[in-house]
Amino acid sequence: MVKRMGMVIRLKADKIQEYKKLHAIVWPDVLETIAKANIKNYTIFLREPENLLFGYWEYYGVDFEADSAKIAADPRTQEWWKITDPLQIRMESSSSNEQWSIMEEVFHTD
Predict the structure, then answer these.
(1) What domains does the chain contain, in order, with CATH numbers?
(2) Long-range contacts of 23-29 (CB under 8 A, 24+ apart)
(3) How many CA atoms are closer than 13 Å to the CA of 96, on its beta-carbon side?
(4) Is 0.90 topped by the overall pTM?
(5) H or E segment and range at residue 26
(6) What is the pLDDT of residues 6-25, one digit of tens each?
(7) Which long-range contacts (CB under 8 A, 24 or more apart) does 74-81 make?
């Protein structure tokens, strides 16, 4: 069974081009870690001038928490986050351990 997931965060206005450049050449080992965590169709959209990033992915695993922990434990992903996280502004409603804010799915049609 697939679980569709959406998330949101803001992007610093002066970091938009840097963020786009980084995501034009995402490190292959980071992408491999995402794939091994049963995540497919990962897409990030940018809405300017609000500088809002919307991320979407489809999770095909059975234990999202365990798969998320594997991503978080990956040293290369941690390096990637050290570069990308400072470009972002967490949502005011985010919990202290949440970078991107997970959204509730309220509608879907195929």
Answers:
(1) 3-103 (3.30.70.100)
(2) 26/80, 27/76, 27/80, 29/76
(3) 0
(4) yes
(5) none
(6) 999 999 999 999 999 999 99
(7) 74/30, 74/33, 76/27, 76/29, 76/30, 76/33, 77/30, 77/33, 80/26, 80/27, 80/30
